[in-house]
Amino acid sequence: MKSSKILLFLATAIAMLAILCAAFPAEGVSVAGTTLHFPALTRILNPQRQMDVEAYLAEQDSLAEVAATRQDSIVHLRHQIDSSDIRFWFPGDDDTFFDPLFAQMEQAEAQGRVLRVLHYGDSQIEMDRMTNRLRAYLQGLFGGGGPGMTSYATIIPSYSLTLSASGSLRRQSSFGDSNVSRANGNYGPMLQDFRVTGNAVTNILATTNRMADDRVRRFSRFTLLFNNRPGPLHVTFTDREGGYTDEQDCPLEGVQVLRWRLDSASTSVRIAVSGTADLYGVLVDDGPGVAVDNIPLRGSSGQQFRQVNEDQLAEAYSQMDVGLVILQFGGNAVPYLKGERGMSSYCKTVAYMIDCVHRCCPGAKVLFVGPSDMSTREGGIMQSYPYLPTIVDSLRACANAHGAAYWSIYHAMGGHNSMTAWVDQGLGGADYLHFSQRGADIMGDRLARAFDNMYQLYLIRRRSHNNQ
């Protein structure tokens, strides 16, 4: 075949495809119950340029490095913080919002305190993802160790701890399928617990996962947090590594704690219980400083705070010395929010969640972490949910109006249509909703970097005040 005929054939085929692109309805064509889409001609002629995630992150980090070299200039650092994609938004634009928290963290180790950060979230933080990077930063700076609070038995495996439990245990949860028992609001700070009726035992082992930070691999302070039912609860604590055993009885009903402190850190302990109680969790720490607790609630958008008994939750919080509560939600609501009515309804849920934490833990700061970019198929192409920017702005306004700081994963990963780039470059999951492990590590580091920016600003203010 002559080259001229081949060229004519290709030109004709391209022209026909162009006509089909122009004529095909934007909403698609339904055939046998399936909607067929064809890309618009403008998208073919002007394809969207995909962001280079690594280059974007490198550029952001270079801005942070510039700020770090100019700590003598509070104006310069504040400008860098306010213009960064990892910035916080504060109520009333008050950039001293975290200063009291930083002061407590600085003093915790010297005071012998274990100041807690509670990180609630949906499946984005399961297995200690994101939380582990923030914990490594805070404990590296302010001291402390251990993986933090865990349930008595395994609910979701964690990179930072290994649990092995057995006995007469029944899971009670404010969320999940119909097979999970409900407890009329009695769930404790993890919004789920295990009821023991008889005997049960849990073995807590240090993780061997290479991705875990070294500080979570040993622990010396333990607190069993529970709601005791009529009759004494008998507890036997054993340090399996050091050979230490202690037995205690708790005859009191209601929210109670039992504590143990080892002379040297262990990597394996056993806690056996006998009686009837709702086991809220075990606080697994090492030394004074900062503890960061990972509390994942799969499938949740935060509504579960409406289902908890606030008196019991407040009593549990009072036993924990909480300095900061992080609420990371919204991702599970995004696909269903398409208009003002739905957005208004969800903002009421977020407002209730924040207000509930303020009521139950009045001494803690609250940070709301908004959803990531998420992709859906529109016109045959994966792209951001159309209403997502409005959702992010609405959640930010809601959080600030109710006295919480706001941090945006959507902005921190690059904004509109960034998830497709994260997926293509191995940093996002195939569902275009979640991060890969590497992507979650990056996002956890970016949250830690955001805190470090504010801590550097706090240090500059303190030095300036001391020099006056």
Secondary structure layout plus pairing:
Blueprint: H1 3-23, E1 29-31, E2 34-36, H2 41-45, H3 53-68, H4 74-83, E3 88-89, H5 99-111, E4 114-121, H6 131-142, E5 148-150, E6 161-173, E7 192-206, E8 219-228, E9 233-239, E10 244-250, E11 254-266, E12 268-285, E13 289-296, H7 310-318, E14 322-328, H8 340-360, E15 365-370, E16 375-378, E17 381-384, H9 388-401, E18 405-408, H10 409-412, H11 418-424, H12 437-467
Parallel strand pairs: 4-13, 4-14, 14-15, 15-18
Antiparallel strand pairs: 1-2, 3-18, 5-12, 6-7, 7-12, 8-11, 8-12, 9-10, 9-12, 16-17
Helix pairs in contact: 3-4, 4-12, 6-12, 8-9
Radius of gyration: 26 Å
By DSSP (H or I, 4+ residues per run), the number of helices equals 12
Taking the alpha carbons of the first and last residues, their distance comes to 88 Å
Model regions low in confidence, pLDDT < 50 over at least 5 residues = 41-47
- Oligomeric organization of the protein chains: single chain
As a percent range, the share of helical residues equals 25-40%
- Structural class, by secondary structure, is alpha+beta
Largest sheet: 8 strands, antiparallel
Average pLDDT confidence is: 89
Number of strand elements: 18
Rough shape? globular
Secondary-structure element string: HEEHHHEHEHEEEEEEEEEHEHEEEHEHHH
Question: Strand fraction band?
Answer: 25-35%
